[in-house]
Amino acid sequence: MHPALQGLVTIVVGVGGCVGYFYLSNFLLDRFLLPARAYSAEESAARRRTGTIIVFLLPALLIAALYIAYFGLDGIFTSTGLFWLAIVLALIFGLWRLRDYVYGEGELTAGRNISHANMIRPWLFLLPAILALGLYLTYPVFETLRLSVTQRNFSTGSYDFVGLQNYAQMMDEPKFWEAMRNNMLWLIVVPALSTGFGLLVAQLTDRISWGNIAKMFIFMPMAISFVGASVIWKLVYDARPEGQGQIGILNALWVNLGGDPQNWLTLPFWNNFFLMAVLIWIQTGFAMVILSAALRGIPEETVEAAIVDGAGPFQIFFKIKVPQIVPTIVVVWTTITLVVLKVFDIVFAMTNGQWGTQVLANYMYSKLFTANDWGVGSASAMVIMLLVTPILVWNVRNARREMK
Amino acid sequence: MAGLKLTDVGKAYGEVEVLKHINLDIDAGELIVFVGPSGCGKSTLLRMIAGLEKITSGTLEIDGRVVNDVPPAQREIAMVFQSYALYPHMTVYDNMTFALKLAKMPKNEIDAAVRKAADILQLTPYLDRLPKALSGGQRQRVAIGRCIVRDPKVFLFDEPLSNLDAALRVATRLEIAQLKESMPDRTMIYVTHDQVEAMTLASRIVVLANKGISQVGTPLELYETPQNEFVAQFIGSPAMNLFPGEVIGTGEHTTVRLAGNHGTIVSAYPTRPEDMGAAVNVGVRPEDLHLTDDTENSYKATVDVQENLGEVTLLFFIPDSEGADPVIAKLPGIHRGLKGERLNLSAKPDKVHIFRDGISLLYRQD
């Protein structure tokens, strides 16, 4: 099948599935489980009996059967067996409570049914998302944590618990500290410059007629993948031996100004900044769009009041406008910080961490998939997560406060 | 001190003219109120005086100096905005000192000015608060305080009370009146669409309509001798009744026969013999109409709706012609059971206005 057609089919199936799920959950909830009508005591007792079978007994038996089929009767008393037994029991208990919640005793009013249906509905809608996120996000966190404290034994294929040994090994590696140092550099430079440039562009393009076109061009890099951007910038930094025509624009300019062609990406220390330029180029558009909206949200009268009070353009910008959008600036800054902490593609595609440009995510990748050292790789993944979490929490809180 | 002089001032946005030929002399120490229906350009005119809108034609002088191209901060004006426009990220104290700090005033002088203004406006306990922690009335006072500390020659108010609730509006109106009294040599220009504010505050009212000035005068001048039908109906509530009619008697007093067989009415407006038979509109305020036994010179009509307010009784006479406003009579006290009655109403001749082609006969040019 043609890939485009495949994509189309995926979209149709995906969207159709979502709509179908939405329709089906409403249908089940409002027709069978909790119809919007009153039931007498006898009716509800009869419904409770059939309901017990459908909502509780059948799923519970199914779950129990699956468990037995997977672990067998002897498998129960292993550590994983007991762990899963607890989960199975919790599920069965949950089904029992669900039956009680849906099929009440005695006389039931229509209002009670409607309000109970509306309590269940959001959870029903969220269920696929919760399952998918649990599988793809929550489970890997715990699995990574487990891997980071184990050592794979290649001869037996088992994982042995080694405590913090992986972490200790990582701490002893200079490459890890280089990655930490570079990440800190990225963390300071990229969010600051992206937000700063974004704010500058947002303000400068606010009142000019071709401002929207300028914004469009500055926003465009957002649509380019990190690897694509890296390829573009690799060409910008490209170096040819002296005497040959320079195809990299930076060297072309440099040579024109009388310099010798430079291998920009191998210049120790400074090459980090050449890599950062790529991310700044991408993220400025993002910062600009959000900050531009924030600037437009500032009450015009406060600006006019400042004009009457005698403030000049710079004072209006720094003393009236910027302080009013500080919450938005913080959200933009922290959002870019999160991107920076996870930066991988750019470094991987441009230098692969050579010449002193290693960063944590690329370090993790090289440990996990090049050196096949799952223990240390997972340990570095945990370090990244540890660094990201507080900023993430702060970011979510700020964003929530913004929305109020 | 500081008077203002507007000479042939106009404002156009491209092809669209919003104001033209505004000529106005404002003496120092006056409290001028701009009123007019929404969209008449009263706020635009104020913003032109403030320097927030460019003046497209004519000249504006403040204190004898042409300020068309002078930036707002150097016009020695201060402005209270409709939404107060307090800086949300600054405390009350910082809001009030912002302009003074920009002007590089010494710190102790700034502090003294703010303390004094805060004292007058009873804001002293709130100086450390942010605007969001203040009530509407307090925010309003901070906005006024921000103007006072700068000690400007001209205060500009852009509908400052429209965001307050009714009770607070009355109280703040009184405060502004007192503030004006405490600064007799400061000029104030006040924009509102509320005629009660205009009548109570103004030393002179400027009524704006149709891109220009309809009439300038003291509140009672506008009430007693309106220049045209627009001003007559704009000032006063309920609005002045207008009866179409025909002049049937001229001289010192004028007699007009009301159209629609409603009788005749006598006005103290003088007319000339050649006015005989002219089509005019007679204007009588609802409160000037009273019941009479005079069947000859009176307005005769049947009451369609009666509203008893206790203090006054409002009678509505719905005219036969479609689309015309009902005639309203406002009788003092309680009158029971007038609905459906055919009544004779008249007014004192000096309360009866006559308009020809929309212009009052008192102000006729020919």
Question: Uncertain spans of chain A, ≥5 residues at pLDDT below 50?
Answer: none
Strand content of chain A is under 5%
CATH superfamily of the largest domain in chain B: P-loop containing nucleotide triphosphate hydrolases
Report mean pLDDT of chain A, rounded to a whole number.
86
Order of H and E elements of chain A: HHHHEEHHHHHHHHHHHH
- Rg on CA atoms of chain B, Å: 25 Å
Indicate the CATH architecture of the largest domain in chain B.
Answer: 3-Layer(aba) Sandwich
- Largest sheet descriptor of chain A: 2 strands, antiparallel
Helix and strand sequence of chain B: EEEHEEEHHHEHEHEEHHEEEEEEEEEEEE
| Count of DSSP H/I helices of chain A | 16
The CATH class assignment of the largest domain in chain B is: Alpha Beta
Number of strands of chain B: 22
Query: What percent of the residues of chain A sit in helical stretches (DSSP H or I)?
Result: over 70%
Helix proportion of chain B: 10-25%
CATH topology title of the largest domain in chain A = MetI-like fold
Strand proportion of chain B, as a percent range, falls in: 25-35%
CATH homologous group name of the largest domain in chain A = MetI-like
CATH topology of the largest domain in chain B, anyone? Answer: Rossmann fold
Query: What structural class do helix, strand and pairing data of chain B support?
Result: alpha+beta
> By helix and strand content of chain A, what is the structural category?
mainly alpha
Number of helices of chain B: 8
Concise account of the structure shown:
The complex is a heterodimer of chains A (404) and B (366). Chain A is mainly α and 404 residues long. Chain A contains 16 helices and 2 strands.
